[in-house]
Every structure is written in structure tokens, then in C-alpha cells.
């Protein structure tokens, strides 16, 4: 394939990289006063990347639309679909970010630039078809995430969150690298296609250890049990807009990267990694649900909710079928809407002095002080719990259906039973907002951008969201078909 074609297929990453470099120079030249303009330009660049990815998604056939740079990168329907979710989630997070930092006068133009380079890394992660490309994209995303977590330098919680994220992230990267080195040692190549061919006949024990280490490193990135310990602390300490970002876009990128690693180079050895994924899925569902029950801080509760939802998403991967991958992508799409809506609702909770409210005591009686916000949060919590007729129910339904079709009836049954535990803490939201008396005065007005993001997310997860089932299902099936050749 010519370099011109390779450059075209990587157009989203190249465009965002060049934009990021230009905006970085503009930030150095314009100083803090340029933060708003750079944020607007970053959002515009991300919209351009969305448009490019939509066009590429339309071009992609059932298999790869094209391998770029000698097989280091693949532009296919799966990668394009994941990138659209990543870029849209990043846009939503940028829209609601500036106001949060306005109270501390801490918003700087570096923030949107970091988000832009993070998006470049995530795009590389989901399209990587070589272990080297995967690691470069992963570290590019991770390094900017560490800075975003500790962006409030004067806040000790933010500094602590950034340090914990960096130390544990470095440990996970080391584990992942060790697994990659083992796989390379036994396969003799870092290419996904070469690894699949090398292990087509037999699967050495050393290579199995490599896969286990790789899955452990990737499990950290998706906050799957038992590598979830960083999530509540980082989510609580990081600035809330950064937390909303961590819970949405990087989660899509990491999960998509995990799917591509499992279903492309190791598709022929699914029996070797399925048991690991099944354990991680069930453990994440149970630990996420039980860990959230005793939480009083809403950000920590949503962190455990994220762990819980990762468990349901992993059930789709455990099925190791095109239907399972399609169900996983559908759940990811709905999860992004539910998570962004929840965190934006949290961002809109402020006292009259502009200080953020983050505990259950702060939202008591919210239905009397901010009724529209309370009803939106009610819909989001019920959707996260998977209660029909809200759209979150369909996300759980498709992954459980895929598990049943793969003859994993016990996995589906245990997952359904464990999902009941999570309903408790979601219902606690409703009880506190609608049945407790108000104890805190809440700011009455919120910016239009916040309402726009919250309204779109609430509309998506409402019963009207079921109108998207057919087009969303068709796109997800096309994305899953990218791996049909490996299955």
C-alpha cells in the first residue's frame, strides 16, 4: 500500500496531531487568556475527526478497509466506530470543563491541548495491529491522562490522584510490556497477523503466560477487577471534568484495544483467555456493586458503578463471537451516554458560592430545589441499573443474549442475578433526591452547554433511544464483522 493511502487512512490522527502542535504554540504565545479560544478550536478539530471517521466507517467493508504503514495500523469499521465514540465523548467533556475551573481561576490552554493529544493516542490504540503501535498509542494517552488528573496543582486531592494514577499506570505498563515481550519471544513478530499465524498450530506455555500478563495490563486500563484499586481514588481526587473524561473516552479506547488484542492475534486461542475474561467480568460486576453500596461521595460511587459496568461489557468479549463483539460495542455506546450524563449532572450541583457538591447529603431534596436536574438524574440512574423501558436495559440485554447464544448460559444467569445488587445504590439516589428533605442550598442556574450535554444524554437513554436500536445494531454488526476473518 502506498504512503499516500497510509497517510489518508490515518488522517484523523495526523490532523489532530498537527492541530495539537499548532495550538500548543498558540497557548505558549497567548497565555492563559487564550484558553477559551483554544478550547473552541480543539472542539472544532475533534468534530472534524468525527466527520472523517464517519466517512471512513461508510467506506469500510466487512473486513479491513485498509492496512496502513505495512500492517502497523488498520482502518476498519470497528476502529472507526470506536473513534467516533471517543471523539464525541471528548467533545462533551470539553464543553463542560471551563466553568469548573473558573471558580479557582485554574483553567489553562494546556488542558484542551492535552485532551487533543490524548485523543490521538486513543485513536492509535483502537486501530493498532502491531504491539509496538499499541504501546505507543497507550502511553501517549496515559501520559496526558496523568497530567489531567493532577491539573489542580493547589488541590492536594488532585495531586494525590495524579501520583496514584502515574505509579499504578507505570506498573500496569510494565506488566503489559513483559507480556508483549513473552509473546514476541515465542511468535518472533509483533504483528497481529504474524502472531496469529505463529500460534495457529500450537500454543506454547510461555506464550500463554505472555497473554495472561497482557490481559492483566489491559485490565488495569479498563478498571476490571482485580486491577481496579486505583479507580475510586483517582475518580474522587481528579477534577470532575477529568473524571468524566476518564470514565468515558479512555474506557472506550481501552476496551476496544482489549477486544482487538483478544479477537485478532489470539482469536484461535480463545479457550486460553476466555476463563480469565469470565472471572474478570463476574468479579467486576460483584465488586463494583458491593463497593458502591457504602459510598457517600458521589464520584466514588460512580467509580464503582464504572467498574460494575465494565463487568457487563466484558461478558460480550467472553462470548468470543461476532454477536458478543457487537453487543459489547452497543453497550459501550449506551454506557458513554449514561456516564457522561451522570457526571455532567454532578458538575451542575454547586452551592450559591460556586463550590461543587459531591455527597449524598448535598443532593437531599434535590427534586424540590432543582426538579429538572433531579428527574434527569433519576432517568440516568434507572438506565444504569438496566431498568426498562430505559435504553440501558437494551445494553445489558444484548450482551446477555450474546452469552446465551455462545452457550454460556451460566455466565448470563450469574450476571443477571448479580446485576440486582447494583440496583440498591442506584435507588439510593432516587430516595435521597425525592424523599429526603433538602439540607443544602443549591445553585439555581447552570450554563447552556451543561444542559445541552445532559439533555442529549438523557434523550439517548430515554425510551426514545430504542429508535436507535436498528441503526446502532447494524453499525455494531459491521464493526464486529471486522473480526469475522479471525474467528
Automatic annotation (TrEMBL):
- Record bears the keyword Transport: yes
Q: What does this protein do?
A: NDH-1 shuttles electrons from NADH, via FMN and iron-sulfur (Fe-S) centers, to quinones in the respiratory chain. The immediate electron acceptor for the enzyme in this species is believed to be ubiquinone. Couples the redox reaction to proton translocation (for every two electrons transferred, four hydrogen ions are translocated across the cytoplasmic membrane), and thus conserves the redox energy in a proton gradient.
Report domain NADH:quinone oxidoreductase/Mrp antiporter transmembrane positions: 128-422
Quaternary structure, from the entry: NDH-1 is composed of 14 different subunits. Subunits NuoA, H, J, K, L, M, N constitute the membrane sector of the complex.
Reactions performed catalytically = a quinone + NADH + 5 H(+)(in) = a quinol + NAD(+) + 4 H(+)(out)
Species for this entry: Qipengyuania marisflavi
Q: Which InterPro entries match?
A: NADH-Q_OxRdtase_suN/2 (IPR010096), ND/Mrp_TM (IPR001750)
Question: Can you name this protein?
Answer: NADH-quinone oxidoreductase subunit N
**Enzyme class name:** translocase
The UniProt record lists the EC number as: 7.1.1.-
**Pfam family of this protein, just one?**
Proton_antipo_M
Q: GO biological process: any one?
A: ATP synthesis coupled electron transport
Q: Which domain of life is it from?
A: Bacteria
Indicate yes or no for the key word Transport.
yes
TM regions (residue ranges): 6-30, 37-60, 80-101, 113-138, 165-187, 199-220, 273-294, 301-322, 328-349, 372-394, 406-427, 448-468
Which GO cellular component terms are attached? endomembrane system; plasma membrane
GO MF terms listed in the record are: NADH dehydrogenase (quinone) (non-electrogenic) activity; NADH dehydrogenase (ubiquinone) activity; quinone binding
Tell me the membrane topology, using the record's own terms. Answer: Multi-pass membrane protein
Starting at the broadest rank, the lineage of the source organism is: Bacteria, Pseudomonadati, Pseudomonadota, Alphaproteobacteria, Sphingomonadales
Amino acid at each position: 500500500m502506498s504512503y499516500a493511502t497510509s497517510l489518508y487512512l490515518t488522517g484523523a490522527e495526523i490532523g489532530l496531531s498537527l492541530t495539537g502542535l499548532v495550538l500548543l504554540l498558540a497557548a505558549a504565545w497567548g497565555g492563559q487568556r487564550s484558553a477559551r479560544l483554544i478550547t473552541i478550536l480543539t472542539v472544532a478539530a475533534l468534530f472534524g475527526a468525527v466527520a472523517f471517521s464517519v466517512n471512513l466507517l461508510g467506506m469500510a467493508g466487512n473486513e479491513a478497509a485498509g492496512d496502513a504503514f505495512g500492517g502497523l495500523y488498520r482502518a476498519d469499521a470497528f476502529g472507526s466506530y470506536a473513534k467516533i465514540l471517543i471523539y464525541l465523548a471528548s467533545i462533551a467533556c470539553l464543553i463542560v470543563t471551563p466553568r469548573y475551573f473558573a471558580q479557582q481561576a485554574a483553567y489553562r490552554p494546556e488542558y484542551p491541548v492535552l485532551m487533543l493529544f490524548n485523543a490521538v493516542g486513543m485513536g492509535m490504540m483502537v486501530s493498532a495491529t502491531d504491539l509496538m503501535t499499541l504501546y505507543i498509542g497507550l502511553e501517549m494517552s496515559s501520559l496526558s491522562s496523568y497530567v489531567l488528573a493532577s491539573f489542580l496543582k493547589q488541590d492536594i486531592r488532585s495531586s494525590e490522584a495524579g501520583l496514584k494514577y502515574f505509579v499504578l499506570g507505570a506498573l500496569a505498563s510494565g506488566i503489559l510490556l513483559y507480556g508483549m515481550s513473552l509473546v514476541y519471544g515465542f511468535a518472533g513478530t509483533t504483528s497481529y497477523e504474524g502472531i496469529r499465524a505463529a500460534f495457529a498450530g500450537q500454543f506454547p506455555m510461555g506464550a500463554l503466560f505472555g497473554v495472561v500478563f497482557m490481559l492483566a495490563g489491559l485490565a488495569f486500563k479498563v478498571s476490571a477487577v482485580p486491577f481496579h484499586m486505583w479507580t475510586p481514588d483517582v475518580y474522587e481526587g481528579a477534577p470532575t471534568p477529568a473524571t468524566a473524561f476518564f470514565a468515558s473516552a479512555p474506557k472506550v479506547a481501552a476496551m476496544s484495544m482489549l477486544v482487538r488484542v483478544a479477537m485478532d492475534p489470539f482469536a484461535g486461542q480463545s479457550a486460553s483467555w476466555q476463563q480469565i475474561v469470565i472471572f474478570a467480568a463476574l468479579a467486576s460486576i460483584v465488586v463494583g456493586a458491593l463497593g458502591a453500596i457504602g459510598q457517600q461521595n458521589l464520584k466514588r460511587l460512580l467509580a464503582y458503578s464504572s467498574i460494575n459496568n465494565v463487568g457487563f461489557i466484558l461478558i460480550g468479549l467472553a462470548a468470543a463471537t461476532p454477536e458478543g463483539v457487537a453487543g459489547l460495542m452497543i453497550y459501550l455506546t449506551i454506557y458513554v451516554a449514561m456516564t457522561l450524563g451522570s457526571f455532567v449532572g454532578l458538575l451542575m450541583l454547586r452551592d450559591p458560592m460556586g463550590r461543587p457538591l459531591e455527597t449524598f447529603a448535598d443532593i437531599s431534596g434535590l427534586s424540590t430545589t432543582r426538579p429538572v436536574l433531579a428527574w434527569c438524574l433519576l432517568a440516568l440512574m434507572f438506565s444504569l441499573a438496566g431498568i426498562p423501558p430505559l435504553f440501558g436495559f437494551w445494553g445489558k440485554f444484548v450482551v446477555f443474549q450474546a452469552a446465551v447464544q455462545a452457550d454460556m448460559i451460566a455466565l448470563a444467569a450469574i450476571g443477571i442475578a448479580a446485576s440486582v445488587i447494583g440496583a440498591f445504590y442506584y435507588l439510593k439516589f432516587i430516595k435521597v433526591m425525592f424523599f429526603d428533605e433538602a439540607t443544602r442550598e443549591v445553585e439555581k442556574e447552570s450554563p447552556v452547554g451543561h444542559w445541552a450535554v445532559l439533555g442529549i444524554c438523557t434523550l439517548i437513554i430515554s425510551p426514545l433511544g430504542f429508535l436507535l436500536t436498528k441503526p446502532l445494531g447494524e453499525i455494531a454488526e459491521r464493526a464486529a464483522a471486522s473480526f469475522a476473518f479471525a474467528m
